[in-house]
């Protein structure tokens, strides 16, 4: 056991004292905020147009521990050294996957009454209703701004912790996380040690807290913000430390996870690696990119440890018993946040879930009662807290419990740990009554950390943004609720893991898979961008894949809704996937940054590593931001693929095509469609016991929610669970997983060129070594990879850093694929006769023109249908967006006003 573990909480007592006051103040603030919103909040933050949404510190989620082939891979093997990956089995064809997508928020009207505990923390849970009720379209932004302000302020914090000087402890810590399957995996490292709640007893504890579902077996022990047993000491996970614990899942715990514009290079590390040309404001700390098992990205934004190398040997950290020192690789967890702020209190993300830990240890994966999943608030307050004690680790986890038989389907039980993130842990949530699953992100809020408040706000922002998104290629947000000192966020469960994880386990993808995944990512981005929202952290670790090959964009912690005309470009993202303009801070917020990152992700899929991974973080950033070099593109990719990457990696953001435009690129346009596109289009019946939320609830949230999202995509169901004095209205949207995704089985029904049909392309997959991803050094100096200058319609817009203002949701500066079937896409693919038989383009709602194979239907009727459905969905989304944006009450500004 690490020495720091035994140190326990020397600061415990001191922190405890401040918790109460913190909670109270936070509570008051949220409450205040809530009221403000209800009354048409204005948020003084509107004046700010900072990056906002959320800034995460480094985190290192632990990937699923389920047995996987990856186990066969030596953890110490480097990507390059790894033996050939196992061929991916063909996805099985199943009925359309229907996934719940509705969002709901659970709320408990009854405050927690646990003796000795503080009043429940009223977290401002974003809700459809609340959102819809906003009269000012910029409110959302205001929230973000507010968050950003916090974030920035945090960056300037004098708190040593801010500087993220993650010490070697990080390593230990990381190791501990990874190695301790069930051990308290705190993800926070810091020079300060704190104690975490001891593992809860599995014995049922009688709780004074009543559950909405009538479950009241909570544990008296549960003392959210105060009772930490000094038997576990978890190093603070400061901004500087990357989440070393990242396991294979997230590749990128990145080298610079905590980088921020505002950050000051104040660490020795940075001092020694200062590149004058790189605008590294603030002390960026990088987490090791591939180290963490979280997402393994090197996202910047909160903490940046000095590990800026793409970790070549990130096997499956989680399996690795050996404490891994800090990772320097651009893994999943290396994100740089503009504010070196570690979102939630260090402990939040890293605090091991006692219960979970114990479960993991014993491998039983027992689950215990959890508060009701997505529940719609039935009262006027947009903020909710749950009085459910179900989340208490001490709650009996017996699946067969008979408590609350009245509302069987409303209980979610926390299952196995999927991973750790900056904000907390993610578990599988299972409703034993309905058989449904979800991903539960558990975040522990601490009051003893100055940044907790800020972190909470950031998290709220992410939730707020996510709650407004509904697309088959975006992880659906179901709802959230706070229970005591913990916040639970319910998300669509995507069991396949991230692209990063798949790459780690199976090696590089074949071209068909890449095409399919890329097409889906683009679909999600097109939708997102149509809402003037930029993800800012696109990379393999943040893209999840379900068993059917459907891709879902995840982790919107750094996403930002672009609203003003001018928005400073925050230094956020993951170094290796970061666009030049972000590094150079030369342009304003731009949707095009995602396109650049997409290009990097395509390379990542083709090589298992992001471009420039052979360089350490800072050096890579220097390359990206100051040289004209572009990463080498694997030869095994066909011309379309190479061209696609080049299009994305144009240094001038104005030259990059928009997501919508890229959907017309032959590389993705003919990607294999999903097998089951139609199933589920019609609203599915809500689960047993669940009634239509809108009708049943008749509350603002429900109404607004229905307005916010497409009815065609989801059914808003709710369940009213009345228990004792607690009434919860569950709003469980169900949606269909989507037809947009082309890949039901990338290997099947492909509409790609004949030579690719039905087969993976020449084996990229078989041997990760064969391709050189990062092994491909950057050859060439500037201009090694020629830019392709296509017809452009540059339309500089004032106030947006020179970036063109989106037109119909898309910036119109880049290559105009709108123009009738661009020649560049015609017959471009070698040997593809399909491309030469294109039907006349037809306009779609996006103003784009799609091209279809003349004999597509006879070629593959189902595929065509799927394609149409997918496009229709995209149109619907756009329409929906337009409708939403134009609504005076919409929290999102009209696109025409955006950017
Ligand atoms: N909806 C989901 N379905 C399945 N697994 C998920 C889901 N969301 C997250 N995970 C898993 O949980 C892990 C932690 O996710 P989380 O979003 O908290 O952190 P992260 O994305 O890895 O890091 P960060 O948020 O700091 O960038 C991820 O690595 C991912 O494997």
Automatic annotation (TrEMBL):
- Which Pfam families does the annotation name? Pkinase
Provide the catalytic activity annotation: L-seryl-[protein] + ATP = O-phospho-L-seryl-[protein] + ADP + H(+); L-threonyl-[protein] + ATP = O-phospho-L-threonyl-[protein] + ADP + H(+)
Which ranges are annotated Low complexity under compositional bias?
286-302, 761-779
The highest taxon in the source lineage is Eukaryota
This enzyme's EC code(s): 2.7.11.25
Q: Where is this region: Disordered?
A: 1-20, 33-189, 205-228, 286-415, 743-782
Q: Which amino acid positions bind ATP, per UniProt?
A: 441
| Matching InterPro entries | Kinase-like_dom_sf, MAP_kinase_kinase_kinase, Prot_kinase_dom, Protein_kinase_ATP_BS
Q: Where is the composition biased (Polar residues)?
A: 61-86, 166-189, 209-219, 376-395
The record's family statement is: Belongs to the protein kinase superfamily. STE Ser/Thr protein kinase family. MAP kinase kinase kinase subfamily.
Q: What is the name listed in the Swiss-Prot or TrEMBL entry for this protein?
A: mitogen-activated protein kinase kinase kinase
């Amino acid at each position: 056991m690490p020495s720091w573990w035994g140190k326990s909480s020397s600061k415990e007592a001191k922190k405890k004292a401040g918790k109460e006051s913190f909670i109270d103040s936070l509570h008051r603030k949220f409450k205040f905020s809530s009221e403000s919103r209800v009354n048409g909040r204005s948020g003084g933050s509107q004046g700010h147009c900072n990056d906002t949404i959320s800034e995460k510190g480094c985190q290192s989620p632990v990937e699923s521990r389920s047995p996987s082939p990856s186990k066969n891979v030596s953890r110490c093997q480097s990507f390059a050294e790894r033996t050939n990956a196992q061929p991916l089995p063909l996805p099985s064809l199943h009925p359309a996957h229907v996934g719940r997508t509705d969002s709901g928020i659970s709320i408990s009207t009854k405050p927690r009454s646990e003796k000795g505990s503080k009043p429940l923390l009223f977290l401002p849970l974003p809700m459809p209703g609340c959102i819809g009720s906003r009269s000012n379209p910029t409110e959302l932004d205001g929230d973000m701004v507010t968050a950003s302000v916090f974030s920035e302020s945090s960056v300037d914090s004098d708190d040593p912790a801010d500087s993220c000087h993650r010490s070697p402890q990080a390593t230990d810590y990381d190791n501990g996380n990874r190695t301790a399957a069930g051990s308290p995996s705190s993800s926070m490292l810091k020079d300060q040690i704190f104690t975490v709640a001891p593992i809860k007893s599995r014995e049922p504890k009688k709780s004074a807290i009543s559950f909405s579902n009538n479950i009241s077996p909570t544990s008296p022990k549960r003392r959210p913000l105060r009772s930490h047993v000094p038997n576990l000491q978890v190093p603070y996970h400061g901004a500087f430390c990357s989440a070393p614990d990242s396991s294979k899942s997230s590749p990128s715990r990145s080298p610079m996870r905590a980088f921020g514009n505002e950050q000051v290079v104040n660490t020795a590390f940075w001092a020694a690696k200062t590149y004058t040309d790189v605008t590294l404001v603030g002390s960026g700390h990088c987490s090791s990119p591939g180290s963490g098992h979280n997402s393994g990205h090197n996202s910047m934004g909160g903490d940046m440890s000095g590990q800026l190398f793409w970790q070549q040997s990130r096997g499956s950290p989680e399996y690795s018993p050996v404490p891994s020192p800090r990772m320097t690789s651009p893994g999943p967890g290396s994100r740089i946040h503009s504010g070196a702020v570690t979102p939630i209190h260090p402990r939040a993300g890293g605090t091991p879930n006692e219960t979970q830990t114990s479960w993991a240890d014993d491998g039983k994966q027992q689950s215990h009662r959890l508060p009701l999943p997505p529940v719609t608030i039935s009262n006027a307050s947009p903020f909710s807290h749950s009085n459910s004690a179900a989340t208490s680790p001490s709650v009996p986890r017996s699946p067969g419990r008979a408590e609350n038989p009245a509302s069987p389907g409303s209980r979610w039980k926390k299952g196995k740990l999927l991973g750790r993130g900056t904000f907390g842990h993610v578990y599988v949530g299972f409703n034993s009554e309905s058989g449904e699953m979800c991903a539960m992100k558990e975040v522990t809020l601490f009051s003893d950390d100055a940044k907790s408040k800020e972190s909470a706000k950031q998290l709220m922002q992410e939730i707020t943004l996510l709650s407004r998104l509904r697309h088959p290629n975006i992880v659906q947000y179901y709802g959230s609720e706070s229970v005591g000192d913990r916040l639970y966020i319910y998300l669509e469960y995507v069991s396949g893991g991230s692209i990063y994880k798949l790459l780690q386990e199976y090696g590089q993808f074949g071209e068909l898979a890449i095409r399919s995944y890329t097409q889906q990512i683009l679909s999600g981005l097109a939708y997102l961008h149509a809402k003037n929202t930029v993800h800012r952290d696109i990379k393999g670790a943040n893209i999840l894949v379900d068993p059917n090959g459907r891709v879902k964009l995840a982790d919107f912690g750094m996403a930002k809704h672009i609203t003003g005309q001018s928005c400073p470009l925050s230094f956020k993202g993951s170094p290796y996937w970061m666009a030049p303009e972000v590094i150079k801070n030369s342009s304003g917020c731009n949707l095009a940054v995602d396109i650049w990152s997409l290009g990097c992700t395509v390379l990542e899929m083709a090589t298992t590593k992001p471009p420039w991974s052979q360089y350490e973080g800072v050096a890579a950033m220097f390359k990206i931001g100051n040289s004209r070099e572009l990463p080498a593109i694997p030869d095994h990719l066909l011309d379309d693929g190479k061209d696609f990457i080049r299009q994305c990696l144009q240094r001038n953001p104005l030259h990059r095509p928009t997501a919508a435009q890229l959907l017309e690129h032959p590389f993705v346009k003919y990607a294999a469609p999903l097998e089951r596109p139609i199933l589920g289009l019609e609203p599915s019946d809500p689960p047993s016991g669940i009634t239509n939320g809108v009708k049943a609830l008749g509350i603002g949230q429900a109404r607004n929610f229905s307005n916010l999202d497409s009815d065609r995509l989801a059914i808003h169901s709710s369940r009213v669970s009345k228990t004792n004095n607690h009434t919860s209205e569950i709003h469980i949207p169900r949606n269909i997983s989507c037809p947009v995704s082309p890949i039901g089985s990338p290997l099947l029904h492909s509409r790609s060129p004949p030579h690719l049909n039905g087969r993976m392309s020449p084996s990229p997959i078989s041997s990760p070594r064969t391709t050189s991803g990062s092994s491909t050094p950057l050859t060439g100096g500037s201009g090694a990879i020629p830019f392709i200058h296509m017809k452009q319609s540059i339309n500089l817009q004032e106030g947006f850093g020179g970036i063109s203002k989106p037109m119909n949701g898309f910036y119109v500066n880049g290559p105009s694929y709108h123009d009738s079937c661009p020649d560049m896409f015609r017959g471009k693919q070698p040997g593809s006769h399909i491309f030469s038989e294109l039907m006349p383009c037809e306009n779609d709602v996006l103003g784009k023109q799609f091209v279809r194979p003349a004999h597509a239907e006879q070629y593959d009727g189902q595929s065509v249908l799927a394609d149409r459905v997918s496009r229709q969905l995209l149109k619907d989304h756009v329409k929906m967006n337009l409708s939403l944006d134009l609504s005076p009450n919409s929290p999102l500004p009209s696109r025409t006003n955006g950017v």
